[in-house]
Every structure is written in structure tokens, then in C-alpha cells.
Amino acid sequence: MDFKHMHSVKLNDGHFMPVIGFGTYAPEEVPKSKAKEATKVAIDVGYRHIDSAYFYQNEKEVGEAIREKIADGTVKREDIFYTTKLWTTFLRPEMVRPALERSLKNLQLDYVDLFLIHFPVGMKAGEDLLPKDANGKIILEIVDICDTWNALEKCKDAGLTKSIGVSNFNHKQLEMILNKPGLKYKPVCNQVECHPYLNQSKLMEFCKSKDIVIVAYSALVSHRDVNWIDKDSPYLLEEPILKAIAKKHSRTPGQVALRYHLQRGLVVLAKSFNEKRIKENFQVFDFQLSPDDMKAIDGLNRNFRYVKIEFAIDHPYYPYSEEY
């Protein structure tokens, strides 16, 4: 097995996804140039899986980073696995391909490796990222996710993306797509919040049975964007059990939390714009957690969700009302 595939998982469509990805989301107050610098550092460190989204509003900068690293000979385009996501104001089928084409234009790339439906809940179609009514309430819209999925399949057929998948879907929403008449391609993955306080074991079993990979985001919950996360939420990396296991292995609690996911067979995203941390988060292949360590971390699960997206709670496709 060559190095490229050594730390990768084979997707149900035959493509390979590196098991650790570099997350590029940052709160609004962080300058977009930071995403470019951090992505270049990440590629130098060894990351080959870059995760972004139209919603992050930094694809221009992330694309520049990738192209500069190709230009200086560090990587070839085919070495990079790049993910973008369809924002929820573009779920109407006729808006899907133009949305992907816009991301490609921002990135200055010919194709992406993975295109995901970012969230199953539609918002009012149009240019506003978070469309609000006169009272400041977000305007939701119902779009059949199976119709959206058809449009993603066409993007794959057109060669604009190698693989297609979903994010923040529960098992019932995955079933809707899997049981769709005339399904051409299954989702290759479901990207969801996942960490020791929310270990997603039921969703994981379900996805495994359908050959769908789980990609864990907010794996360290170290970026606490007040727009999305309650300020009183617990600090995962202060968890005494993680700290004790980290000490035993001479590692950081973050490295232990990432390693935990890798040993469960998940793909994990690590997000940091700090050079030291970007390097640290990638150093997870040279140590092993024992079965007892894994069991202790499993025991931390309390189904605690940091990112609740409460404004969408009344929408029929709100994903978190289900247990998994």
C-alpha cells in the first residue's frame, strides 16, 4: 500500500479519503487571510485532506493556498482531497450546480473531491447566507432532500466533483436518500459533530452497515464560536480522563481525542490556525490507545451536542430530534 493510501479510507465509490482532514472554518472576526496561511502550513505539515464550505466564505483564500503549494512543487492536485459543501439557501435542485460552480470559481480549481449537502434544513433561497425576516428570525424553506440529491448526482456525472455525501443528517434522512427510487450514487459519508461527549455510536453503526463513512467535526470543540456554541458548555480538552490518558502516553488531550476517532474507524477533522497546534494535531499516527483507554473514553459519552442549530428546530428536516 503506497503512502498516499496508508492513512486513507476507501469510499463506497472507490475513491480514497485521508483519515485526518484540516478544517478551515473560523468565526467572522478572524481575517480570511489566516485561512490561507494556515492551509499552507497544514499542507507543509502533511495534511492532504482540506475541508471547507461556501458558508465559510474563505474558499478564495483556501484555493490560493492549495494552488501555491501545487505551484511550488509541494503537492500535485491529485494529492489533495478537497471538500466543499452546498449551503442551505441553495438546496433547490436548479441551484445546486451553479452553487458548486461558484465554489470552483472561487477556488480556481476544475473539480472538488467531495461535495456535501451542508445541512438538511433549507433556508430561503437566495444570496443571504442567513436570510432573516423583519423580526430577525431566520426564514426556513422546505426542499425535498431527495431532489437536492438528484442534482448532486448530476454534478458527479459532470465531473465537477469526484464524490458526493451529506453532513448533519440523521439515520432517517440517510434512509430517505438510500431508499430513493432511481438512486444512482449512495452518499460516501456523513459529516457530523462527534467527540467523546457525543460519540455517535448508534449513527456510526448505522452508517457502517450502509458503507457510509462518518467524518467527525468539532472533534476537539476548541473553537467556541458564540454564534453557534453556548458559552457555558463544558471544555472537552479539560476533561480529567482525557488528560490522564494523555499524560500516560506523553500526548496532549487533543491528540488523544483525535486518535480515539481514528481507532474507531472514523475520519476526523482537526481545526486550528495555530502553527504549533496544526503540527500537533497531525501527530496521531505514531501511538496507540489501549482497549482500556478506548473504553474509558467511550464512558465519557453523554450525548452532549455543542452545535444545536436551534433556529431550525421546528423544520420537518431538523436532524437532531432523532436519537441518531
UniProtKB/TrEMBL annotation:
Q: Where is this site: Lowers pKa of active site Tyr?
A: K85
Q: Which PANTHER family match?
A: ALDO/KETO REDUCTASE (PTHR11732)
> Can you say what this protein is called?
Prostaglandin-E(2) 9-reductase-like
Query: Pfam families recorded for this chain?
Result: Aldo_ket_red
Task: Name the UniProt key words of this record, in alphabetical order.
Answer: NADP, Oxidoreductase
InterPro entries for the chain? AKR, AKR1C, Aldo/ket_reductase_CS, NAD(P)_OxRdtase_dom_sf, NADP_OxRdtase_dom
Tell me the GO molecular function terms: oxidoreductase activity
Q: Where do the catalytic residues lie? A: Y56 (proton donor)
* Domain named NADP-dependent oxidoreductase: residues: 20-301
Q: Which family does it belong to?
A: Belongs to the aldo/keto reductase family.
Transmembrane stretches, start-end: none
Q: Which residues bind substrate?
A: H118
